[in-house]
Amino acid sequence: MWTPLALLCSMYVSTECTTFGGPVFKTEAICYQQLQTVGMPYLKQKFPASKIIDVKCINWDKNNTGTGT
Length: 69
Known about the structure:
Layout: E1 2-10, E2 17-21, H1 28-46, E3 50-59
Antiparallel strand pairs: 1-2, 1-3
């Protein structure tokens, strides 16, 4: 399972940052494709006074039975 994440920070207040996550995708390739074509354009439109600092797709190991915190 792959989930896209984005870190956005205010262009005016350097300590004001927020993370956003998207839905789960089956593959890393689909996750990054959707992040580029849907997620980032949406965030840029919704938060024009913010800068996208970084984006990545996270792999959630569904076989891991631990409950990490």
